[in-house]
Write a structure and sequence with these properties.
The structure holds 2 protein chains of 2 kinds. By secondary structure, chain A is α/β, with parallel strands linked by helices. Chain A has helices at residues 3-14, 38-47, 69-72, 126-136, and strands at residues 19-23, 30-33, 55-64, 80-88, 95-102, 115-117, 140-142, 170-171, 174-175. Classes of the chains: A alpha/beta, B alpha+beta.
């Protein structure tokens, strides 16, 4: 299926309010899904005979914030966070990118991580990818069985891939800066 | 367990066992780097495995956001440090796709040649190290003897032996070398004069001619060895559904019977490099496997790698043949400060250990807004826990080794 057909299928199944938008002219065409519906949409994409997206290639978090004033003039995004799911199918040999847009902080309270339902029940590899995204980007995957840091140390503070992350001055007596 | 004691001279001991937590690693020789496995054991039986990663975490993705893609290439070398060439290639292709660049035929041929040679070197280490895990030392020495010559040839081509940064955006940093002093290892193995000089491609052909018949010996030492079969066949069995569900790629996926290789089924920018080459995708089940072997076990994964070496040799030979008549230059110019368009790209390439993905988000600046490296080993390591549970302690290295992980790539 082409990206356009997949988008149309999703809109037909879930309606416009759950499938918020799409960019089909991008190098990797993507479909945007409402955060609350992602687990439902992922289950559909994996199990439906027409899509059969059995492989989760990659799950990443992107923090859309440009703290550098020099670069800010070419940057035309409202501050937000995206979770990007790259999917493909071994049987049908097609692929799609699914995006979820979240606020940078839950309800605007700085320090409260934004929430999105987990897809670790759909693809088991999402378990580790979500742990990594939680660790580095700071996204709370609700319903994840074991959402703990995976790459950084357990007592690390902050989420390094946030654009406004400040490096600690020291860690257990070791100078970092 | 209760024992009926009839002989009064035998004192009955309490032979119940307590569960014990054992840390395997991070400084354990058979964890392939700094991996810590927390094992809950009952005697010799492992009931639960919890992998702990991150000892080599260098925040490569954060660094990538602050450098231009060309500057980030040396960091990709240090991810999978056993296959630096293939990592350079994957990253370069992703950036080329983002900026809409198409490299000339000569550069593509060079990339196939170098990439497949890197695959041979990487699989040789995988083979030798797996032998070490299972307690046989000689294959390791043979593998490193062979790999040494490949490293010598890489050194002549780009000056580095491990962290090459050779394949770059637009092609490669240098053309293949002309006349070189014969690598000492090659002179010794082929009985040439160690002070002689040869063409680089001629030395490579000499090496491949020497290596190809040796593969039969490795099969005799490992894959057909009775002890090796006992240690690997039927252990760590991962069926097709499980391998796909855990996002496994590369030899691990093909060892579970999935006929998929990105060099044939991947993105057009990658597959067009392999157009016109005669080769086949290796995947389990194998008709010539010993009868103890089960689809998707340690043996299958290992055998996929061994057969891929043979395919890679054939690909290198074809690339050597093609190279002199290939059109164009070995590199199209690309400015280090070139701006990335406001778009994003995710591209996977077939590295020796699996599908390595690079995800770049551009925002009109030189530095990518987001640089993400999806590690193949990260996904291949994820099923360790279910694969190891219920096995003997001594089988853990056999299972983890068959996944052929490199911690530098997992932790990034």
């Amino acid at each position: 299926m082409t990206a356009e057909e997949i988008r149309d299928l999703l809109v037909e199944t879930f309606g416009e309010e759950k499938i918020n938008g799409a960019n089909l002219d991008a190098i990797d065409p993507w479909v945007e899904v409402a955060p609350a519906a992602i687990a439902e949409v992922a289950t559909f994409l994996k199990h439906d005979e027409r899509t059969k997206f059995d492989h989760l290639n990659c799950l990443s978090g992107v923090d859309y914030l440009q703290p550098d004033p020099k670069k800010a003039k070419t940057f035309n995004h409202e501050p937000h966070i995206q979770v990007v799911y790259h999917l493909s199918s071994y049987d049908l040999k097609h692929k799609i990118t699914v995006k979820v847009k979240l606020p940078r902080w839950k309800d605007g309270n700085e320090g409260d991580l934004p929430e999105v339902p987990t897809v670790s029940g759909v693809w088991r590899i999402a378990d580790w990818h979500e742990r990594e995204t939680f660790d580095l980007v700071g996204i709370n995957f609700v319903g994840h069985p074991n959402l703990v840091r995976i790459l950084c140390a357990e007592d690390w503070v902050g989420h390094p891939l946030r654009k406004d992350y400040e490096f600690p001055l020291e860690y257990h007596g070791m100078r970092c800066k | 367990m209760s024992v009926t004691v009839e002989d009064p001279r035998i004192v009955e001991f309490d032979v119940r066992t307590d569960e014990m937590l054992v840390n395997m690693g991070p400084q354990h020789p058979s964890t392939h780097g700094v991996l810590r496995l927390l094992l809950r054991t009952d005697g010799e039986i492992v009931n639960e495995v919890t992998p702990h990663l991150g000892y080599l975490h260098r925040c490569a993705e954060k660094i990538g956001e602050n450098l231009s893609p060309v500057q980030w290439i040396p960091y990709t070398d240090r991810m999978d440090y056993l296959a630096g060439m293939n990592m350079n290639l994957g990253m370069s292709l992703a950036v080329e796709k983002l900026i809409g660049m198409e490299v000339p035929e000569k550069a593509m041929t060079l990339r196939v040649l170098i990439g497949e040679l890197g695959r041979i070197a990487s699989h040789l280490v995988g083979m030798g190290a797996y032998g070490l895990d299972l307690g046989t030392f000689s294959p390791f020495l043979y593998a490193f003897r062979e790999r040494e010559i490949i490293l010598d040839l890489f050194e002549e081509a780009c000056g580095a032996r491990l962290t090459y940064s050779y394949l770059t955006i637009g092609g490669a940093t240098h053309d293949l070398p002309g006349v070189i002093p014969i690598p000492p290892g090659l002179a010794q193995l082929t009985g040439r004069d160690p002070n002689s000089a040869v063409q680089w491609t001629e030395a490579l052909t000499m090496f491949l001619d020497w290596l190809e018949p040796r593969i039969k010996e490795y099969h005799a030492l490992l894959t057909r060895n009775h002890i090796f079969i006992k240690r690997t066949a039927g252990l760590g069995v991962m069926d097709r559904e499980m391998a796909i569900d855990y996002g496994c790629t590369g030899p691990v996926l093909r060892g579970s019977g999935v006929d998929f290789d990105l060099r044939r089924d991947g993105d057009p920018i990658y597959t067009r490099m392999y157009e016109g080459y005669v080769w086949k995708v290796i995947n389990a089940p194998f008709a010539d496997a010993p009868r103890e072997v089960v689809l998707g076990d340690n043996w299958c994964r290992f055998y996929v790698r061994m057969l891929e070496v043979k395919e890679a040799i054939s690909l290198v030979r074809q690339a050597i043949e093609k190279y002199p008549s290939a059109k164009g230059k070995f590199r199209d110019s690309h400015k280090m400060s070139a701006k990335l368009p406001a778009d994003e790209v995710y591209l996977e390439t077939e590295c020796p250990r699996g599908a390595m993905g690079f995800y770049f988000v551009g925002d009109g600046n030189t530095e990518p807004f987001r640089a993400r490296a999806k590690s193949s080993c990260f996904c291949n390591l994820a099923p360790t826990a279910p694969l190891c549970e219920g096995y003997l302690l001594a089988d853990i290295p056999a299972v983890v080794g068959s996944l052929d992980i490199v911690m530098g790539e997992i932790d990034r």
